[in-house]
Automatic annotation (TrEMBL):
Specifically methylates the adenine in position 2030 of 23S rRNA. Pfam families: RsmJ (PF04378). This is Ribosomal RNA large subunit methyltransferase J. One of its GO terms (cellular component) is cytosol. Transmembrane segments: none annotated. The active site is at D164 (proton acceptor). The gene is rlmJ. The record marks Y4 as: Interaction with substrate rRNA. InterPro entries: DNA_methylase_N6_adenine_CS, RlmJ, SAM-dependent_MTases_sf. The lineage of its organism: Bacteria, Pseudomonadati, Pseudomonadota, Gammaproteobacteria, Oceanospirillales.
Length: 284
């Protein structure tokens, strides 16, 4: 029984990092004309209203996109807030927040393809309604990790895979590590992005160790915390692991993280919360 609904969390600090990186990687994929397949294993509802009871119950978007959307920014953060404005009638209003499928759909070209899986029946329906009938975008109510393995290697021989579970069950971490190893074995040249939360530091580090133990080359870790570790119950930070990232991403994120940290960590007492950009395993 799935209880997680992303509508309570859309646009929070974790989405800011995840979607900024997703935007960057999609742009990078588009530099080559050759078609690719975008695979979103845990797609969510696709689009979120920020005036909904769910979004306002937690107010999480106010600690993420709400801190950025209407201020002057430069570089990647300016590109990200411009992207969010596209979904808000090109205004500074913040009524809608795009999920990963909407962001990907924005960048996919006519000859690209997407496979979106979402298991929750309500979010699957919202996602299907949002995407509509599109020949090149498959929306499936299936287990995303199983479907990923069944899909690889893609016929295009180019793919971007986003693995973004809610980690409701502790075994999800082991399942993600196992699936990633199997996926890379089937299709070693794909770009993979795996999201993870920082809730209990020990759990996060054992997940990262499990990923390193797979022996997958060229893994990059990006992590941003908005509160010190284990300060309280709940998520204090989040991160992304990338396999085969764009060669320029590491340097780009080293430039971006200090600014993102400064803009998202408003509480002076939490300024010591860490961020990192770490090469976890060497390139092939
Ligand atoms: C963090 S949300 C996804 C957010 C989305 N990727 C985004 O960035 O906008 C995780 C989603 O995974 C769904 N989910 C949970 N287990 C799943 C599974 N085994 N296969 C596919 N979807 C699953 C949940 O219902 C939830 O909507």
């Amino acid at each position: 029984m799935l209880s997680y609904r992303h509508s309570f969390h859309a646009g929070n600090f974790a989405d800011v990092l995840k979607h900024t990186v997703l935007m960057y990687v999609l742009n990078y994929m588009n530099r080559k004309d050759k078609p690719y397949c975008y695979i979103d294993t845990h797609a969510g509802a696709g689009m979120y209203r920020l005036d909904s009871p769910e979004a306002n119950k937690t107010g999480e978007f106010m600690t993420g996109i709400g801190l950025l959307h209407d201020i002057p920014l430069q570089g990647l953060l300016a590109d990200y807030t411009a992207l969010i404005r596209v979904f808000n009638n090109n205004s500074n209003q913040l009524n809608n927040y795009p999920g990963s499928p909407a962001i990907a759909q924005h960048y996919l070209r006519d000859h690209d393809r997407a496979q979106l899986t979402e298991l929750h029946s309500s979010d699957f329906k919202l996602l299907s309604d949002y995407i509509g009938r599109q020949r090149a975008i498959g929306v499936l109510q299936k287990d995303g990790l199983e479907h990923l393995i069944a899909t690889l290697p893609p016929r295009e021989k180019r793919a971007l895979v986003l693995i973004d579970p809610s980690y409701e069950i502790k075994t999800d971490y082991a399942q993600v590590a196992k699936t990633l190893a199997a996926a890379v074995q089937r299709f070693s040249t794909g770009t993979y992005m795996i999201w993870y939360p920082v809730i209990k530091r020990a759990d996060t580090e054992s997940f990262i160790s499990a990923l390193v133990k797979t022996g997958i080359p060229d893994m990059l870790r990006l992590e941003l915390c908005v509160k010190p570790d284990d300060l309280e119950r709940g998520m204090t930070g989040s991160g992304m692991i990338l396999v085969n990232p764009p060669y320029s991403l590491k340097q780009e994120m080293e430039g971006l993280m200090p600014e993102l940290h400064q803009r998202l960590v408003k509480d002076a007492e939490h300024r010591a919360a860490p961020w990192q950009v770490t090469q976890l395993s060497a390139e092939k």
